[in-house]
Amino acid sequence: MRLDSLKRRWWVPPYYYCCLVALACSAGSSDSPQPSETWDPIARCASGFGCVVGIVVDAGVGEPVSGAAILCRLAQRSTTTAEAGRFSLDSLPPGRQDLEVLAIGYRARVFSAIRIARDSARVLNVRLVPDTVFQ
Predict the structure, then answer these.
(1) What is the per-residue pLDDT for 45?
(2) Contact 65, 32 (CB under 8 A)
(3) pLDDT tens digits for 36-69?
(4) Would you call 72 helix, strand, or coil by DSSP?
(5) Does residue 134 have a pLDDT over 60?
């Protein structure tokens, strides 16, 4: 399901949009490493493409944030973090990409012009700040 069509079909408050995106994008996909998998970021990069791997943690306490959505709108790719906060966003075209990280209860983070190289993994470790609306 394309993210654009998800936004056009329903009006969703911004705080709940990341949940719908995560559910729509993770349904039937295996973008995030599973606990039983060996976590080898380079092996996850498809030939001719690049990937972004990393971990999402709470900026205050340093604990992993599971279920966070990582979006690359230009390449129309997304993934969610696993229970340990790890993610792998595969099959990204080489060049500069903008990434957005969303999680319920946290402020969204946007990373502009991240350089993606062919056949290599870019490491992106994200610290999310809790949103005061939910406290």
Answers:
(1) 66
(2) no
(3) 445 555 555 667 889 999 999 999 999 999 999 9
(4) strand
(5) no
Q: For residue 29, list its beta bridge partners.
A: none
Q: How far apart are CA 28 and CA 6, in angstroms?
A: 17
Cross-strand partners of 61 = none
Closest to 54 (Cα-Cα) out of 75, 79, 36, 23? 79
Taking only the tens place, the pLDDT of each residue in 5-21 is 444 444 444 444 444 44
pTM over 0.90: no
Cα–Cα distance, 30 to 119 (Å, whole number): 20
Q: What are phi and psi of 125, to 5 degrees?
A: -100, 125
Q: Is 15 helix (H, G, I), strand (E, B) or coil?
A: helix
> How many independent structural domains does the chain possess?
1
Kind and range of the H or E run holding 21: helix 14-26
CATH number at residue 75: 2.60.40.1120
| Per-residue CA distances from 23 to 58, 68, 94, 96 (Å) | 21, 10, 27, 26
Sheet holding 69-72, edge to edge: 77-80, 69-72, 95-102, 109-116
